[in-house]
Amino acid sequence: MIPSIPQCLALMDQYGMLANIRAHSLMVGRVAGLLAKALNAAGQGLSLELAVSGGLLHDIAKTRCLGQRELRHDVLGGEICRVHGFSVEIAAIVAEHVMLKGGLAEAGFAERELVYYADKRVLHDRVVGLAERQEYVLARYSHGDAALHARIRQNFLQAREVEERIFAWLDFAPEEVAGRLAEGGFVIPELSHV
Predict the structure, then answer these.
(1) Tally of structural domains, the chain
(2) Dihedral over Cα of 27, 29, 30, 32: its sign
(3) What's the pLDDT tens digit per position in 95-125?
(4) Which residues lie below 8 Å from residue 50, measured CB to CB, with a gap of 6+?
(5) Could you give the 3-state DSSP secondary structure of residue 165?
(6) CB-hemisphere CA count at 13 Å for 55?
(7) Which CATH number goes with the domain that contains 150?
(8) Which helix (H) or strand (E) holds 123?
(9) What is the value of pTM for the model shown?
(10) Is 95 exposed, middle or buried (0-12, 13-18, 19+ CB in 10 A)?
(11) What pLDDT, in 10s, does the model give residues 161-190?
(12) Which of these, 137, 67, 129, 70, lies nearest to 99 by C-alpha position?
């Protein structure tokens, strides 16, 4: 089952999602939705519902994991999705939003790639370029660990590859995502009052 928007919002409350993480998740859902909608208009067969719900739930375990370096919010988030009986695809989107473990889809796109990419484009609740987001992630999460620093850089190389694949299909550039959202390019009706 793919959770509805109201179910996603209820889960955010149930798992005590902090306001800043909630704002980030709402924007990731909008970016993933905008890209899924645009790719579908270009001939791809993506589930808009899966992309948006996956974006909304991608950080469902983040609050619980704060300050506990031994816990991984992506892994725990995937487990939360499975406990609630959500589809395997939702659990995979949440579990792979930090790093795509299964590589890129052979043909076309998978919704997990859109949420992974959308997460890399949203800093707090603002859409930014990959370079700005990478610098933030390096400063915040590498903890001076050279190996972790290298993994983060490698992960953003994959995000750039995903970006190139996505925008090869679209009639707008990555730099236009924020503007399209500001112009109402993708609104989640259930969230218009949030």
Answers:
(1) 1
(2) positive
(3) 999 888 876 777 678 899 999 999 999 999 9
(4) 2, 87, 89, 90, 93, 111
(5) helix
(6) 33
(7) 1.10.3210
(8) strand 122-123
(9) 0.93
(10) buried
(11) 999 999 999 999 999 999 999 998 888 876
(12) 137
Cα maximum dimension of the chain = 44
Are 177 and 31 in contact by the 8 Å Cβ rule? The answer is yes
SS (H, E, C) 65-121: HCCCCCCCHHHHHHHHHHHCCCCHHHHHHHHCCCCCCCCCCCCCCCHHHHHHHHHHH
The helix/strand/coil state of 45 is coil
Secondary structure class of 173 (helix, strand, coil) = coil
Can you give the residue range of the structural domain that contains 170?
Answer: 5-191
Tokens 């949420």: give the residue.
Answer: 115
Residue 162, judged by CB atoms within 10 A of its CB (0-12, 13-18, 19+), counts as: buried
CA distances from 129 to 119, 135, 161, 178 (A): 11, 10, 14, 10
